[in-house]
């Protein structure tokens, strides 16, 4: 390394004289282009890299800027001085020549004017002069000498005057132009001289600075860089030493050399320590790699469990906010990334509904206790309410510090929905059973009341005050019968007599009935499909369903609105109805009833088909209208769907099974029936004494002979005794272990061909299957009036309606 520095020094000493000679020869032949070009090329190649070019550029740039600024300032001062001299000269011309020029102009002596102007033109820097007469006459005098210019000039205009009768009068103008061209040329020559001398001085000074910087600094920096670049810790070289003349005191380079040598010694010691540390580190790395592989295997095992488990896993921090939720939660519709940073209570749907439960849960979390099977409700990414069950275990650091919770979560939504459907089904079955029992007894009572009221009304025809009271009782009994019928329809216990009907014709007939019911403030619009199929339904029940929907729509439009009745053909493939379990497929005729009312709130929309549920005030509804429609649609073999939005109205769609027949029956208006009389003998089997007495009395008033029995066994005893009768009129639900259907079959075994008419206020599966009466079965629904009794008896006895 020391030899290297010596060689650099010798090389610099060998080059310096040649460079000096070239500099001297360059100075001696300053204007030799070839020598200057060679010198510049040599300098450029020598200083293409390193500190030299930057130092040279900085010196040249700074010197050039200073030179230019000083030159510009000197030229500016010279310019002002020269221009001042010219302006002084022009002012002197104005003071010395205007009098004589004015006198010559007054005398109209143009020769004298030209001589005076030529004298002015001979002055330095004056290029043109002109005298113009100011006079109101043709061809005023104008004398000009010199060559006027438009650039780089200074001009002056002096008035020429004369004195007339003591008054000064302007008779002309003297115009003088002085050029600045010579001033600019002098300034340019001066600038070139200054710049050339300054450039030469700057260049020589810069070269000297570069040479001295190289001699004192850069060659030693190169030696230091070469030592550092070739330094090898495995085979350390001798200490760094620079070949330079000794100085009186150590300078910066000496301090750098000492620092480098000290650093190299430290590096050698550190290298030995590093080799020992590397050996230890290699052993530690092997242990760490093994631990990392075990950790990765454990993590992968956990991920496999987390992604294949039916549950998902979660973690929370000390503030109970989620820090991790496994991707398995996405399979249940949860936006697991959106839950990061939130607390469980923030994502809960039931925190306001069950505040005590959540307060207890949060208190347990604050106590850092484990928990199991904590159930709550939340919403998934689509907004659907879901049920969750979570287990959690607190996590503590090695120093006992609480770190948060880890646990698992289970989606119980399907289980809850199944349980809810089961509870709903059980509730509906219980209501159906209750409805049947109530209807059976209530219809027996209503049968006696309606029949007795008819007799009372006939006897009070001449007493209007009491007749009005009897009419009120009759109306109340009729209303009770309607409520009972609605209950039976909802419970799907109302026997239907379906037949092929023209749905469009029935809707039009029902629309006529709706006009007086709804009032003039409700507009009725029909949109009926021209190709609507025929449907297999009970026309009276369908008409009642439409009326119920229309009345509900009217109540939803207290200020008036539009009711739309619509029909259309629909092919359904797994369409869900009002109940999630209602999945229907096939061809259906749709009857839609829509209104422009206030709509149904979303939180009660799922309950509108429940019996006795109503949003109307007390006394304004029984809550059976929509439940009757739902029961009728399901018993018919179709379904019902509802769509509603608050403020935009409601649409209820009935889907009725399509009839395969070709000629649908048209509904005819119902006319009041007259009581038909007869003379046949009728065996009346009725377990309720009140109903039995009423029937016997009514049949007697119609001319029939009657035999009576309270149960099936008593009726069979009469048959076995040889009692003669033309018609068996029997209740279906009776005590004693024998129902009406079993009694009729037993009687027909004894007397084949006997005619049977059933009556009941509630039908089970005795004569009704899938909601429809068995073929060939005649039924008279309780409660019934005298005219309905006589008409039905004549139908069964004669095989045709009574006249």
UniProtKB/TrEMBL annotation:
Chain ranges of the Histidine kinase domain: 437-660
Any one GO CC term of the record: membrane
Compartment(s): Membrane
Membrane-crossing residue ranges in chain numbering: 24-43, 55-77, 191-213
Gene Ontology MF terms: phosphorelay sensor kinase activity
4-aspartylphosphate PTM sites in chain numbering: 731
Alphabetically ordered keywords of this record: Coiled coil, Kinase, Membrane, Phosphoprotein, Transferase, Transmembrane, Transmembrane helix
Response regulatory domain residues: 681-797
SMART domains in UniProt: HATPase_c, HisKA, PAC, REC
Reactions accelerated catalytically: ATP + protein L-histidine = ADP + protein N-phospho-L-histidine
The EC number(s) this enzyme carries: 2.7.13.3
UniProt-listed PANTHER family: HISTIDINE KINASE (PTHR43065:SF49), SENSOR HISTIDINE KINASE (PTHR43065)
Name of the protein in question: histidine kinase
Protein's organism: Bradyrhizobium huanghuaihaiense
């Amino acid at each position: 390394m020391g030899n290297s520095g010596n060689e650099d020094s010798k090389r610099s000493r060998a080059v310096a004289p040649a460079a000096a000679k070239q500099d001297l020869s360059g100075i001696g032949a300053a204007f030799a282009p070839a020598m200057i070009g060679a010198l510049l090329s040599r300098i450029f190649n020598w200083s293409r890299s390193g500190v030299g070019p930057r130092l040279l550029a900085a010196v040249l740039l700074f010197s050039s800027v200073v030179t230019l600024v000083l030159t510009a300032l000197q030229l500016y001062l010279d310019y002002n001085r020269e221009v001042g001299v010219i302006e002084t000269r022009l002012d002197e011309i104005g003071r010395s020549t205007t009098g004589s020029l004015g006198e010559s102009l007054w005398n109209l002596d143009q020769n004298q004017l030209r001589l005076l102007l030529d004298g002015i033109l001979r002055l330095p820097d004056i290029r043109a002069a002109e005298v113009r007469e100011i006079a109101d006459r043709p061809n005023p005098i104008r004398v000009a000498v010199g060559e006027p210019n438009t650039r780089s000039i200074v001009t002056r205009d002096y008035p020429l005057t004369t004195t007339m009768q003591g008054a000064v009068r302007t008779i002309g103008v003297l115009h003088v132009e002085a050029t600045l061209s010579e001033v600019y040329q002098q300034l340019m020559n001066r600038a070139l001289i200054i710049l050339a001398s300054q450039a030469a001085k700057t260049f020589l000074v810069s070269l000297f600075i570069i040479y001295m910087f190289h001699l004192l600094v850069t060659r030693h920096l190169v030696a230091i860089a070469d030592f550092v670049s070739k330094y090898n810790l495995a085979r350390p070289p001798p200490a760094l030493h620079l070949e330079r003349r000794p100085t009186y005191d150590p300078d910066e380079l000496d301090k750098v050399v000492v620092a480098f040598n000290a650093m190299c010694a430290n590096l050698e010691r550190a290298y030995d320590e590093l080799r020992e540390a590397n050996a230890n580190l290699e052993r530690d790395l092997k242990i760490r790699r093994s631990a990392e592989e075990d950790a990765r295997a454990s993590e992968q095992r956990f991920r496999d469990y987390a992604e294949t488990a039916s549950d998902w896993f979660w973690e929370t921090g000390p503030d109970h906010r989620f820090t991790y939720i496994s991707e398995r939660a996405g399979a249940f519709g949860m936006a697991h990334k959106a839950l990061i940073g939130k607390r469980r209570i923030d994502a809960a749907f039931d925190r306001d509904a069950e505040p005590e439960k959540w307060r207890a849960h949060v208190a347990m979390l604050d106590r850092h206790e484990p928990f199991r099977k904590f159930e709550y409700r939340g919403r998934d990414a689509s907004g659907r309410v879901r049920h969750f069950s979570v287990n959690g275990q607190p996590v503590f650091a090695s120093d006992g510090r609480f770190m948060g919770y880890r646990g698992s979560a289970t989606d119980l939504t399907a289980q809850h929905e199944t349980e809810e459907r089961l509870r709903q089904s059980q509730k509906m079955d219980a209501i159906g059973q209750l409805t049947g029992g109530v209807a059976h007894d209530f219809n027996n009572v209503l049968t006696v009341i309606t029949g007795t009221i008819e007799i009372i009304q006939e006897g009070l025809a001449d007493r209007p005050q009491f007749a009005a009271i009897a009419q009120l009782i009759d109306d109340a009994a009729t209303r009770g019968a309607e409520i009972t019928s609605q209950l039976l329809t909802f419970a799907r216990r109302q026997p239907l007599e379906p037949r092929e009907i023209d749905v469009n014709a029935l809707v039009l007939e029902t629309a006529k009935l709706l006009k007086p019911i709804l009032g003039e403030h409700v507009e009725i619009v029909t949109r009926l499909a021209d190709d609507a199929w025929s449907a297999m339904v009970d026309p009276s029940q369908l008409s009642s369903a439409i009326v119920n929907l229309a009345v509900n729509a009217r109540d939803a439009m207290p200020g008036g609105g539009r009711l739309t009745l619509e029909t259309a053909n629909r092919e359904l493939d797994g369409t869900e109805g009002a109940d999630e379990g209602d999945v229907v497929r096939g061809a259906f005729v749709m009857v839609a009833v829509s209104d422009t009312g206030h709509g149904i709130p979303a939180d009660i929309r799922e309950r509108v088909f429940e019996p006795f549920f109503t949003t109307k005030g007390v006394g304004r509804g029984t809550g059976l209208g929509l439940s009757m429609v739902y029961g009728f649609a399901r018993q018919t073999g179709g379904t019902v769907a509802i769509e509603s939005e608050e403020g935009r109205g409601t649409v209820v769609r009935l889907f009725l099974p399509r009839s395969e027949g070709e000629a649908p029956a048209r509904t005819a208006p119902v006319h009041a029936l007259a009581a038909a009389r007869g003379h046949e003998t009728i065996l009346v089997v009725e377990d309720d004494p009140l109903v039995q007495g009423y029937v016997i009395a009514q049949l007697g008033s119609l001319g029939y002979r009657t035999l009576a029995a309270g149960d099936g066994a008593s009726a069979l005893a009469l048959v076995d005794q040889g009692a003669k009768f033309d018609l068996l009129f029997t209740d279906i639900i009776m005590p004693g272990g024998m129902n009406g259907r079993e009694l009729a079959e037993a009687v027909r075994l004894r007397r084949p061909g006997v005619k049977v008419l059933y009556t009941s206020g509630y039908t089970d599966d005795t004569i009704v299957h899938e909601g429809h009466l068995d073929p060939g079965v005649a039924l008279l629904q309780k409660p019934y009036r005298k005219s309905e009794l006589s008409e039905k008896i004549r139908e069964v006895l004669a095989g045709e309606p009574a006249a």
